[in-house]
Amino acid sequence: MKKHHPARRKPKKALGFSAAVLSGAAFSTVLGMVLLALACIPALSLSDPLRFVPVFALVCLFVSAAAGAHLSARLHGKNGLLCGLLSSLALILILVVTACVLSLKIKTSLFLICAPALLLISAIAGVCGVSA
Predict the structure, then answer these.
(1) In what helix (H) or strand (E) does residue 122 lie, and over which residues does it extend?
(2) DSSP of 58-100, one letter per residue?
(3) Which of left, alpha, beta for 104 (phi over 0: left; psi -120 to 50: alpha)?
(4) How far apart are CA 91 and CA 118, in angstroms?
(5) What is the DSSP code (8-state) at residue 16?
(6) How many Å apart are CA 113 and CA 88, to the nearest integer?
(7) 20 DSSP 8-state letter
(8) Using a CB cutoff of 8 Å and minimum separation of 24, what contacts does 103-111 make?
(9) Span of 48-52, 61-65, 66-70 with lowest mean pLDDT
(10) What whole-number distance in Å separates Cα of residue 97 and Cα of residue 6?
(11) For 8-33, what is the mean pLDDT?
(12) In angstroms, rounded to a whole number, what is the distance separating the alpha carbons of residues 62 and 31?
C-alpha cells in the first residue's frame, strides 16, 4: 500500500463556529488557571508577593485570551476576527460570572481598560490564527 506524503493528506474538517468559539474560551480558561498557578512560583520568591499579583494576573489573562482566540480561529478555519472577539467575550463573561458567584470585587476602572484591550489582542490573535 502506498503512503501519501504528509503535505498531501486531506485537510482536517473545520469545527462549527460556535463549537470553535466555545473551545477557545474553555482553552483560555484552563490555560489561565495553569498560568496563574505557575505564576505563584516566582511571586512567592519575591519580598512582597501581593504587590506583583495584579501584574502576574494581567499577563496570564492576556496570554491565555490570545492563545484561546488563536485556537478558536484555527479550529474554525475562517472568520478569525469574529472567532477571536467572541472567544474573548465568552472568556470575559466566564470571569465576570465567576467573580460574582465568589463575591469578588471587580475594579471598574481596570475592567474598562482591560476588556477593550483584551478584545483587541484577541481579534489580532484570531486573524493570525486563520492566516497561519
Answers:
(1) helix 108-131
(2) HHHHHHHHHHHHHHHHHHH-S-HHHHHHHHHHHHHHHHHHHHH
(3) beta
(4) 10
(5) P
(6) 15
(7) H
(8) none
(9) 48-52
(10) 44
(11) 81
(12) 11
